[in-house]
């Protein structure tokens, strides 16, 4: 398992396919628009996890201020789910970027993942019809 910076390679179809797993109703247009936005933003950082030369996970973070970041997207292929790849992506990104605080907004599907990693969870209520959102915050000292 190894990690690579993919900040300038977000239009790669393999990368977009993984990012699509973290989006609601992804379309090719939506994915390419996000890739354009992220690649042109100097405060966005992206990393991939490769196992045996195959990309199996992606994390995208945006610097908010100083050493505070927000996870914009994190996803792994179904074949590596529940095998620690997403946690290792977070750990790699936090160390590489020297984060002191990292935040993520999520829904019921991923809340337990963030809780197990050590994030503090606060409900944001029903931001969308029938969908409760949560703010997850991890402070590193």
Characterization of this structure:
The protein is of the alpha+beta class. It has a single domain (2-100), classed as 3-Layer(aba) Sandwich (Aminopeptidase), CATH 3.40.630. Helices cover 28% and strands 40% of the residues. The relative contact order is 0.14.
Radius of gyration: 14 Å
- Residue runs with pLDDT of under 50 for 5 or more positions: none
Task: Report the β-strand fraction as a percent range.
Answer: 35-45%
How far apart the termini lie comes to: 27 Å
Number of helices: 4
Structural class: alpha+beta
Q: Going across the biggest sheet, name each strand in turn.
A: 1-2-3-4-5-7-6
- For this structure, the quaternary state is single chain
Order of helix and strand elements from N to C terminus? EHHEEEHEHEE
Arithmetic mean pLDDT: 93
As a percent range, the share of helical residues equals: 25-40%
Write down the overall geometry.
globular
**CATH fold description:** Aminopeptidase
The CATH architecture: 3-Layer(aba) Sandwich
Give the tally of β-strands.
7
Topology:
Blueprint: E1 2-5, H1 13-20, H2 28-39, E2 44-51, E3 54-65, E4 68-76, H3 85-97, E5 101-106, H4 111-117, E6 120-128, E7 131-139
Parallel strand pairs: 4-5
Antiparallel strand pairs: 1-2, 2-3, 3-4, 5-7, 6-7
């Amino acid at each position: 398992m190894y990690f690579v910076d993919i900040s300038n390679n977000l239009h790669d179809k393999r990368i977009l396919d993984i990012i699509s797993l973290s989006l609601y109703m992804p379309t090719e247009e939506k994915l390419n628009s996000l890739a354009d936005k992220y690649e042109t933003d100097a405060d966005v950082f992206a990393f991939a996890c490769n196992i045996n030369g195959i990309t199996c996970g992606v994390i995208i973070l945006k610097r908010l201020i100083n050493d505070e970041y927000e996870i914009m997207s994190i996803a792994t292929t179904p074949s590596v789910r529940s095998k620690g790849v997403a946690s290792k992506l977070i750990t790699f990104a936090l160390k590489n970027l020297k984060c002191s605080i990292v935040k993520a907004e999520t829904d019921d599907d991923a809340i337990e993942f963030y809780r197990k990693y050590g994030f503090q969870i606060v409900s944001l209520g029903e931001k969308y019809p029938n969908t409760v959102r949560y703010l997850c915050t991890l402070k590193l000292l």
